[in-house]
Amino acid sequence: MMRALVPWDGLAPAGIRADVYDDAADVSDVDCFVLPYPQATALPLIARMPRLRYLQTLYAGYDDLLPLLPAGATLCNGRGLHDASTAEHALGLILAAQRYLPTWVRNQDRHEWRQQYTASLADSTVVIVGYGSIGQALGRRLVACEATVVPVASRPREGVHGVAELPALLPTADIVVLVLPLTSATDRLFGADFLALLRDGALVINVGRGRVLDTEALLAAGGRIRAALDVTDPEPLPADHPLWNLPGVIITPHVAGGSATFYPRARRFVAEQLRRIVAGEPLHNVVLGPSIVSF
Amino acid sequence: MMRALVPWDGLAPAGIRADVYDDAADVSDVDCFVLPYPQATALPLIARMPRLRYLQTLYAGYDDLLPLLPAGATLCNGRGLHDASTAEHALGLILAAQRYLPTWVRNQDRHEWRQQYTASLADSTVVIVGYGSIGQALGRRLVACEATVVPVASRPREGVHGVAELPALLPTADIVVLVLPLTSATDRLFGADFLALLRDGALVINVGRGRVLDTEALLAAGGRIRAALDVTDPEPLPADHPLWNLPGVIITPHVAGGSATFYPRARRFVAEQLRRIVAGEPLHNVVLGPSIVSF
Q: What is the predicted ipTM?
């Protein structure tokens, strides 16, 4: 019988023996591995799974898994599971920055009632760089907030600009949101050149991968450009890193995808993937390897 | 010629002599007074305007102005000018509470990268108490955020519950938003009885008037119920008030209505009101007195 290692109990259909992930488990006979979320501490186990045929990450990004995958195995990602959670966090970061939430929190800690006019999201122009399912989920929220959304994807399509148009679009932006996977094309895509095209006080949000934004360039632009970052480079950010103190920067520790709304969706998704494996049906979200996993 | 005292330059049409508000001005011949925003420091001037025929506040609420208004004068409020700004701030408070923004701000100040799962707005049920133009603007934003919106107004109407149904609705709520004016019917409307009907960990938002929520009852429910308040009772909140430190409470100093998106709308509105006065046309947003002001 196939053996699976999974993050949660009660997911597997008949035909799979599923154990809940545990650092100390004997994993030599694992065929199917659904990584826990977060997954960093579980990655070393993959090298001890010679029979592995199906690796499932619950993240959308999978660049870090490619070197670990055994030949011929199928890798599936968690595309779609984080759309609502990540879009919502990006919106929360935008509103926190525009409506000065950190100032109010710090004033509350000092018991200070001190009014101040703030920026706003309504009537702002927001360039969303990366217009997949998360970017679109964010776009719908921003339109409801009376912002003007300018969608940008790697290739232009109907109603969506291409990355090549960014130099013309960035000077019009009040806010730029980066929702990009890390690839050779996006690695430090957003550097000194792009930052220089932004207005004074423009806000850069990053909820994709930390290395899409050049940290040194942001530090150099510090004070002129504001930022709210759920992902950083390096990550985790060391305690002595200058980014913590950069004026106008908000940092959250890569938590955009992992809110309460993610779990029920992730559970349903994993249960359906395991059902498909047993039934010999094509898997969802295959990013490498055969879409039907045979044992 | 009519004399007006206004908050900003360049608003008045021919036929009105408009001066920009100044504490020290001689105001004895003022016919039209457009209050500055915020307005608290300008209120004592009203008693020194024996000719006043038109008083314009840029707030939606006007309970505090009624005792100051000379007999026969027209009072207009700022209904509509704050819809986007206030709804956006309410959404920011909801996201700050659900996605633990204060925790991240405090951790950032300590240079701590510490992950934690958060609640979410998506899939939540939000009861909006007060479904005028601000409540509806918030409702549109929440629907885009994949929340379920339950609208409640003083009287039931098509698709909107009445206040009398609150006891049945509150136990279903993850989040309750209060967007009510202060009247004898809403004064401390939300007290111990209503708070007791809420689930553990439910979130109460107040962006209307502080006295709609009973502060003592909230303090007594402290820890069990979370809150994010842009208005408080008393207001401003004194430095030694226990609400500052109540666990799970976020406080902003009555700034929901006054963001960047408010000013252009307010300028256009005031210019149009002054034009109507000179033309003898009916004013917008009349809450007391004749809608055509004659001199």
A: 0.86
* Active-site residue flag, B254: yes
Coil vs helix vs strand at A124: coil
CATH number for region B2-81+260-288: 3.40.50.720
CA distance A251 to B108: 6
Per DSSP, the residues of B204-241 read EEE-S-GGGB-HHHHHHTBTTBEEEESS-SSSSPPTT-
Whether residue B40 lies within 8 A of chain A, CB to CB, comes out as: no
What are the Cα distances from residue A139, in Å, to A89, A93, A156, A176, A254? 13, 14, 17, 12, 21
Would you place residue A287 in the very low, low, confident or very high pLDDT band (cuts 50, 70, 90)?
very high
Q: For chain A, give every domain's residue range.
A: 2-81+260-288, 83-251
Q: Which residues of A touch B108 (CB under 8 A)?
A: 244, 250-251
User: H or E segment at A55?
Assistant: strand A54-56
How close is the nearest chain B Cα to the Cα of A147, in Å?
Answer: 10
Q: Inform me whether the C-beta atom of residue B140 falls under 8 Å from chain A C-beta atoms.
A: yes
| B265 catalytic residue (yes or no) | no
Q: Give the C-alpha separation, B101 to B86, whole Å.
A: 19
- Cβ-defined contact of A88 to B260 (cutoff 8 Å): no
Do A2-81+260-288 and A83-251 share a fold? yes
Residue B28 reports pLDDT greater than 80: yes
Condensed to tens digits (0 to 9), the pLDDT of residues A56-86 reads 999 988 989 999 999 999 999 999 999 999 9
Q: What is the pTM of this model?
A: 0.86
Active site residue A209: yes
CA dihedral B155, B157, B161, B163 (to 10 degrees): 0
Restricting to B residues 165-224, those with a Cβ less than 8 Å away from any Cβ of A are none
Residue A116 is predicted with a pLDDT of 92
Residue B150's alpha-carbon distances to A158, B100, B144, B189, B206, in angstroms, are 36, 24, 14, 18, 16
**B254 and A CB contact within 8 Å:** yes
Q: Which of A185, A82, A175 is nearest to A133 (CA)?
A: A82
Among the partner residues B96, B115, B261, nearest to A122 by beta-carbon distance: B261
Residues of chain B contacting residue A117, judged by C-beta atoms under 8 Å apart:
255, 258-260
Segment A17-21 mean pLDDT: 91
Cβ contact, residue pair A115, B38, below 8 Å: yes
Which homologous superfamily is A83-251 in? NAD(P)-binding Rossmann-like Domain (3.40.50.720)
Is the Cβ of B86 closer than 8 Å to some Cβ of chain A?
Answer: no
Q: How far, in whole angstroms, is CA A229 from its chain's centroid?
A: 11
Question: Which residues does chain A have within 8 Å of residue B95's beta carbon, measured at their own beta carbons?
Answer: 88, 91-92, 95-96
Query: Are B164 and B129 in contact, with CB atoms under 8 Å apart?
Result: no
Report the amino acid identity of residue B182: L
CB atoms under 10 Å from CB of B48, counted, come to: 12
Asked whether residue A143 carries a pLDDT value surpassing 90, the answer given is yes
The stretch B166-191 carries a mean pLDDT of 96
Do residue B253 and residue A115 have CB atoms under 8 angstroms apart? yes
